[in-house]
Amino acid sequence: MRDALDGMTRFDDFQNSLGIAPNMLTRRLNTLVEAGLLERRRYCEHPPRDEYVPTARGRDLRPVLVLLLAWGNKHFAPEGPSVILVNRKTGAAIDPILADAYTGRPLDEPDYAFAAGPAAGSRTRSDIGPPLERPWRGNRERRPPANRDPQTRSK
Amino acid sequence: MRDALDGMTRFDDFQNSLGIAPNMLTRRLNTLVEAGLLERRRYCEHPPRDEYVPTARGRDLRPVLVLLLAWGNKHFAPEGPSVILVNRKTGAAIDPILADAYTGRPLDEPDYAFAAGPAAGSRTRSDIGPPLERPWRGNRERRPPANRDPQTRSK
């Protein structure tokens, strides 16, 4: 998937990059197509050849993989990272962190919390009723209960 | 793991939150301890009781889970998200994106690329030799080859 998000689309290229058996690669590509992360496109009729292009769902996974890579580099690469993230123009190493799209400000750990969303079921509501001073603006109708009394918790 | 990162530490609390069988929860907690994401701490001797606290490695996984949550909300929740991210003080919804820790600027897709790091093997070097105009500053000694001649690609 990382190769696909870096612009790779063809079977032979994936195989060269990953160095895995063709049947294994076919299985992986099929799984990613079925999951809606890649789209199969016929680019040649004779002989029949398909290429694999990331869908919107697949493209949006890239930031997740980027953070996962940074996490792995920090905690699982005592000899130094084998893949890093760089600025494409300057070549400078990038250290990816979270920011809020609305404010543009970096997100520090204490700033944010998980909270029940509009489609939360009763279990989610009682379990992660958020420690908020004001409720989420888009969630006025169905705000989670303010108290977290274990008696009312669903089993 | 999300519960643990939200401050939960005790077996009974995890079980209430997740609603899974005790032996299943024991197995999951053991897996997370073995993976170095949680640390087991004895908090009561009689009867013997352990609590589970995220390690540094586990805490650093939180941003990854946050982005994964946002990705799932966008692509797998047609009826609206059941868990969202909010500012702990204001209750405002947060839309998490990537930024660069060094510059504080949001990372747009075209800005960055994967590149071979200091510990990259020859396969990684030949496969993701980066399209850089200047090499990564910390990588001068072992910069990846500038050309990507398929003849020299390791098999």
Protein architecture, described:
By secondary structure, chain A is of the alpha+beta class. Chain A has a domain at 2-58: Orthogonal Bundle (Arc Repressor Mutant, subunit A). In chain A, 32% of the residues lie in helices and 18% in strands. Chain A is built from six helices and five strands, in the order αααββααβββα. Chain A has a two-stranded antiparallel sheet with strand order 1-2. Mean pLDDT of chain A is 80; it is low at 130-155. At the A-B interface, helix 4, helix 5, strand 3, strand 4 and strand 5 of A face helix 4, helix 5, strand 3, strand 4 and strand 5 of B. Strand 5 of chain A pairs antiparallel with strand 3 of chain B.
Topology (SSEs and partners):
The structure is a homodimer of 155-residue chains.
Chain A lengths: L1 H4 L5 H8 L3 H13 L3 E7 L4 E6 L1 H4 L2 H14 L7 E5 L8 E5 L11 E5 L5 H6 L28
Antiparallel strand pairs in A: 1-2
Largest sheet of chain A: 2 strands, antiparallel
Q: How many alpha or pi helices of chain A?
A: 6
Name the assembly state. homodimer
Helical coverage of chain A, percent range: 25-40%
* Strand arrangement, major sheet of chain A: 1-2
Shape of chain A: extended
Number of strands of chain A: 5
Mean pLDDT of chain A: 80
Q: Summarize the largest interface: chains and residue counts.
A: A-B, 79 and 80 residues
Class of the domain at 2-58 in chain A, according to the CATH hierarchy?
Mainly Alpha
Indicate the structural class of chain A.
Answer: alpha+beta
